[in-house]
């Protein structure tokens, strides 16, 4: 038995043809849907990038206890558990957050790993002379080191007719070819794309020819839309081109699985961490505003050779946290009790539900609950997060350790149910995104019926439904052993 995961970053579900998109060229996603089960109610859990990957490893949401950070000493790690049980695990990725302070303990959980350099502001090629930069808007116009580095990285890729995504998939195909006749291995091919900036080659842009004479714009900032409709449309076209590039690379994996006849004994999972707003709800990005469907309702495709189900839709409510137990179960490795995700074997084979509701969110933001029909977004009662703490034994942020000022607030507290008896540092926090700078977003709780209103344009005012969704939210928080202050900041009371 073998397993391959092809993981994208910021891949929008509603912009793929199997989910109804007609404007974007994604024929290989159609091929994939014909060969697998397409999930219609797949949701993210913790956001954004590294919190989602911690969910992927541990099989449980992390955003109620911790912001962006490394794997913790007490965490169960799916690839490490596979490794310890005789399954060879290999990671290939151009997701450069893996080699920053806040992601530095993820890739070392695998037997081996290969890292491709050059995405976004990855501190890669060294050039003292400033790069040539066109007139630009969005993040590409910022006077920041990571923007300067991005222009250097782009220049190198263009001069050498390459791209980090292309190199990532090239290495992935090499691993498959090398190990096609071996057994019990798990390969994770993970690309940073179509994460912003939406940098790709001209051949993919030819699918989306359009008239545009404005400033360079393929890297929107995380803010409200202030650009002209023409500029917004151009930026979307840049994203579309990058998605088409992703589709082409996915096709190379499907071709090789065909050529090597891997469908008989190889699980294939194609997934993403979250989506990205491209002007919907008058916003760009993914970590500031409440998490609408465009961000958290994710694409997910799974081929499981045990059931042989293909070309089918599945309406069960699933999450990123289910992928770790699914892979462990596939290889016959026991699923740890601290994983709250569930194996999807019977969900795929018989469309057997595994949960009534699930939570998603970012540390310090709204806490959201969905049952697959309704989405309830619960905002903090105290919008400035006066009561919020990080719980960790690895006190680092995305790019740096916690500061001495932060660490002076730390105190050692009792373990949670999932920390295997380990006490933790409790450190005062304001959240992943400063709520004081975005107080205008805390305008009240929101409730949507997403089957009839998938774009969430018509909030529902129903005290009865809100009461039911609040009950489900509280139950899920208790199952996750959420800190007491999370209930307090949301104006909730624990169940008796």
Question: What structural keywords apply?
Answer:
single chain, 496 residues, alpha/beta, five-stranded mixed beta sheet, 18 strands, 28% helix
Explain what the structure shows:
The chain is 28% helix and 17% strand. The protein has 13 helices and 18 strands. The strands form 4 sheets. An 8-stranded mixed sheet has the order 5-4-6-1-7-10-2-11, with helices on both faces. The protein is globular and about 55 Å long.
Number of H- or I-type helical stretches:
13
Mind summarizing the main beta sheet?
A: 8 strands, mixed
Strand content: 15-25%
The stretches of 5 or more residues where confidence is low (pLDDT under 50) are none
Shape: globular
Distance between the termini: 46 Å
Q: What structural category do the secondary elements indicate? A: alpha/beta
- Radius of gyration, in Å, reads 22 Å
Strand adjacency order, main sheet: 5-4-6-1-7-10-2-11
The averaged pLDDT comes out at: 96
Count of DSSP strands: 18
Structure in a nutshell:
Helix content is 28%, strand content 17%. The protein is of the alpha/beta class.
